[in-house]
Every structure is written in C-alpha cells, then in structure tokens.
Amino acid sequence: MPEGHKTHFLAREHYDLLGGEVVKVTSPQGRFRADARQVSGRYLDSVRASGKHLFYEFDGNVIVHVHLGRYGKFRQRASPPPKPVGQVRMRMVGSNASLDLTGPTTCRVIDSELQREVMGRLGPDPLAGGKKSDVWKNISRSGKPIGALLLDQSVVAGVGNIFRAEILFEAGLDPHIPGSDLSQDSFDLLWKSLKRMMTVGLKHGKIIAVTAREAGMPLPKIPEDKRFRVYGQTECPQCDHPISTVEVAARRLYFCKHCQSCRC
Ligand SMILES: [Zn+2]
C-alpha cells in the first residue's frame, strides 16, 4: 500500500502534469461515470495530499477524492491516451498528459465540506506541516503498543507498514511498548527517523530506509532489494540475528528482538 511519501509525490507529479488547465475526466470502466461527469471540463486548481488521501480540487467546489488502498495504481499516459488497459476507474486527460487510475479503494466526487470531514479524522501529517507535539500528545496518552499507534491514521497520518518497521528499528524500540510508557527521548528519536525517511521518500518517490553511507552509493543508485534494513528481511544488518515477525494492528511487523529491546 502506498504510504504518505507516495501520495505527496503523486500530488506534485499530477499537478505538474494536469494542474492549471481544463481536464477531461471519464470512467472507461463505468463505475465512476456519474461522478466523472460532475468534474469533466473543469479547471484543475490544485492537487493536495493528506496522509494516504489525494484530493484533486476543481473549480466550482468539486473535488475528486482518491484513496489508493492496497491495489490502487496510477499510470501515466500520453495525450490523447491510447486504449485503456485493465479496469480503468478514472481517466484524466489534459493537453500534454493523461492519467489512468485502476483499483482504488476510494474514488469519488466530494465537496469541500466533506473534504474537511475526511481530513479532520486524520492525525498530523509530517509531510504537510503536522506538528511533532500533536503526534506526541496522541501517542503519549494511549496505552496501545507503539507498533499499532504508528499505523493508526488518526494518530499520525501517512505511516504505513514499511515506515513503521523501519523507524522502530532505527530508533531501537520494542514495537510492543505502550505509547504511554514511551519516553520523550525515545519519541524524539522516532520522530527524527520518521521525518528523515518520509522526506527521502518524497524526494525519490520510494521508501529508502538505509543511508547513502551505509549502502556505499548515492540513494538513487541503491538497488530495490537493498533499500530496507528490516522490512521483508530475514537477517538483521546490525547483529546478524534472525529478523522476527509479529502481527500488530492486523499487519505483519518485522523487527529485531536483539536490537529493538528498548522499552522506554
Ligand atoms: Zn539486530
């Protein structure tokens, strides 16, 4: 599932492709047809990301709300676009480029009031000016494990399964510590990792947990299978112990029992 860095990356990219012009919107697959008619032929004012949500803001207070979920995917096409491939829920056509969206969890037209409601349910988004102190408040007053809190979009918006594993590993924290037991120092480490990894992710359009120094090469050159330290790995890069997995908040969490022993 795309995490927050990806939605912000897509918002920038899609605004560069289609922003500031009149966009034709259709639904080749048909499921979005009635909504598409409400926005087609309007001017795309802005594209905004909040957590894992995308908002395409058109003139006249109509907004396309997209949540990619686990299977949603955008594909960039030429303009005019070729024949749709697969179940294209939404197609946006500008003068120089087109976008095809397949498999989203949400794709609907809303107004600004409903947009505020959706955004109001989200916690602070570190890539959209979300405040560290607000995230700390959300975490420190909960008795749930930190490994679950990080995936809760009302606690902090945009963190998914990969960021969760990688930032807990970098901070050396046991994923089972209750939020209310976490020290301010540990939270500071966690926040620092989160900001660094999300900023790198936004810049490169993908999560890169390792540093250039660790990898011995510039970040863009790091091969796909060398980007993570703990997620999807079998052996810890720090201590060579096997990586453990546990279900936390219904998703598989990768961690090193040896290096992530801090419960404070
Ligand atoms: Zn280890």
List keywords for this structure.
264 residues, alpha+beta, N-terminal domain of MutM-like DNA repair proteins, Helicase, Ruva Protein, domain 3, eight-stranded antiparallel beta sheet, 10 strands, binds zinc ion
Describe the structure.
The chain has 264 residues and is α+β, with helices and mostly antiparallel strands. The protein folds into two domains: 4-120, N-terminal domain of MutM-like DNA repair proteins (Alpha-Beta Barrel), CATH 3.20.190; 126-255, Helicase, Ruva Protein, domain 3 (Orthogonal Bundle), CATH 1.10.8.50. 30% of the residues lie in helices and 22% in strands. It has eight helices and ten strands. A hairpin with a 3-residue loop joins strand 3 (53-58) and strand 4 (62-67). Helix 6 (161-171) crosses helix 7. The longest helix is centred in the C-terminal third of the chain and has 21 residues, at 184-204. The structure holds zinc ion. Zinc ion (ZN) is lined by residues 236, 238-239, 241, 256, 258-259.
